[in-house]
Design goal:
The protein has 206 residues and is α+β, with helices and mostly antiparallel strands. It has three helices and nine strands; from the N terminus they run H-E-E-E-E-H-E-E-E-E-E-H. The longest helix is centred in the N-terminal third of the chain and has 60 residues, at 2-61. The N and C termini lie far apart (112 Å).
């Protein structure tokens, strides 16, 4: 009898101990689940923020300038191929109907054609070569010179693109170029402002 009572006491004691630990185990598991959920939410939030920043950057890169005339810098990968020093590394960027064209005056008449793309593609049948214009540049000492200029289609601002050239030796060369820092021409900006004021005045008189 005593032995049975002792066994029952042990069983009851075990049940009470399990019951006492269960809430603790439950709380520990709940905290672990909560922490996992928090980490997951935080990671997702960071991912969403990163995606938003990337999208914003892509939008900025792909931004199309409004129609008008700008001055813009023309950067190349070669010291032998650059804008004439009289023009301080800049060309005239014209934007019309979302299409951008940069006119640059080069250093001489040694470059006879340009091609938007690679030198290999420039030599294929049907390749559309850019023909030169004859520009007159004026240097700081007042001296003038005739050089070749080109109207170059610009796919995007601040992004490198391929521009091949051929010189008098009849050999094509690959180059990377980039158009940066477009600045609205003052005269063009003033004209746009005057047009806006005239339109506003006309609307107010109606």
């Amino acid at each position: 009898m005593k032995r049975s009572v002792a066994m029952m006491a042990c069983v009851l004691s075990g049940v009470l101990m399990i019951g006492g630990y269960s809430p603790v185990l439950a709380k520990t598991e709940a905290k672990a689940v909560s922490a996992t959920a928090t980490d997951k939410d935080g990671a997702e939030a960071k991912t969403d923020a990163a995606k938003a920043d990337d999208k914003k950057e892509d939008t900025a890169k792909g931004e199309v300038l409004e129609d008008g005339v700008y001055s813009a810098e023309f950067d190349t990968d070669s010291g032998m191929f650059h804008v004439n020093e009289a023009n301080d590394g800049k060309g005239t960027l014209t934007v019309k109907d979302g299409k951008m064209t940069l006119h640059v005056s080069l250093a001489s008449k040694n470059i006879v054609n340009l091609f938007v793309g690679t030198a290999e593609d420039a030599q294929k049948d049907g390749a559309e070569l850019l023909e030169p214009t004859t520009d007159t540049v004026t240097y700081s000492d007042g001296m003038t010179e005739e050089v070749y200029g080109f109207d170059i289609p610009v796919p995007a601002i601040d992004e490198e693109f391929d521009l091949a050239l051929i010189g008098k030796k009849n050999k094509w060369y690959d180059h990377k170029v980039k158009v940066t820092n477009p600045q609205k021409e003052e005269a063009d900006a003033d004209a746009a402002e005057d047009t806006a004021k005239a339109t506003e005045k006309k609307d107010s008189e109606k």
